[in-house]
Amino acid sequence: MRQMVKLVLFSLLILIFLSGCHSNATATDVDLFQYKNSYVGDNSAVVNTVIHLQGAQHFSGIELKTKEEPYGIVVNYAWSESELNEKEVAINNASYLFTLIQNVDWVTFNFEMHDGKEVYEMTRENLQERYEKELSEIDNEDELNELIQESLGDEHLLN
Q1: Which of 18, 21, 122, 137 has the most crowded CB, counting CB atoms within 10 A?
Q2: Using the 8-state DSSP alphabet, how is residue 53 labeled?
Q3: pLDDT of 22 above 70
Q4: Cβ-count burial of 105 within 10 angstroms (0-12 exposed, 13-18 middle, 19+ buried)?
Q5: Does 9 score more than 70 pLDDT?
C-alpha cells in the first residue's frame, strides 16, 4: 500500500513539474532567427521554421532533399480551406527558408486544392537576384519582412 501511495505521489509530482514547463508560446512569440545558419539536413530546425511561417495551419508535410547537391526542401500544404494567397505565402516562406538555412538551394511548395495542385518552385539564386541582396546577410525579421513586402508585386519572383 505504501508503495502505491509513493508511486501516485511521485507521478503527481512529475505531472505538476511537466505542466509547469509547458510553453504558452504562439507563432508570433517564436524568434525564427534562432534557426539562422541551420542546414537542410537538420530536420528539427527546418520543420520548426516551417511550422511558424505563413500558412502553417495548412502544413501537411515536408521532404528534405539532401542526398546530392543542390539541396532542397519540398513543403506540402492542404490548401483547400485557406483564404491566403499561395503565391505570397510561397515568396514569404522561401525568403525565410533561404535566409535561415544556409545550404538550401531550392524550395518547392505544393498547395493541394479542391480543383488540383498549385506548385511554386523557387531557387536561392533567383530570389537573391530579384531582391538584389544576399539573403544570408539579413540578421533580423524586420529587415526580412521589409524586403518581402517591397517585392510582393514582382511577378518574376517565381519560376
Answers
A1: 122
A2: S
A3: no
A4: middle
A5: no
Q: Alpha carbon of 25 to those of 41, 44, 51, 57, 100: distances in Å? A: 26, 17, 13, 15, 20
539573403: which residue's cell? 135
Residue 26 has pLDDT above 70, yes or no: no
CB 94 within 8 A of CB 127: yes
Q: Which residue has the cell 511558424?
A: 52
Range in 33-42, 95-104, 150-159 the model is least confident about: 150-159
Of the candidates 159, 145, 153, 141, the one whose C-alpha atom is nearest the C-alpha of residue 32 is 141
Find the helix packing angle between 86-100 and 124-131, rounded to 10°: 100
Which residue type is seen at 9?
Answer: L
86-100 vs 43-50: helix crossing angle, rounded to 10: 150
Give residues with Cβ within 8 angstroms of 134, minimum separation 6: 128
Beta-sheet strands, E only, within 79-124: 106-113, 116-123
Q: Of 9 and 101, which is predicted with more confidence?
A: 101
On the question of pLDDT at 13 being above 60, the answer is no
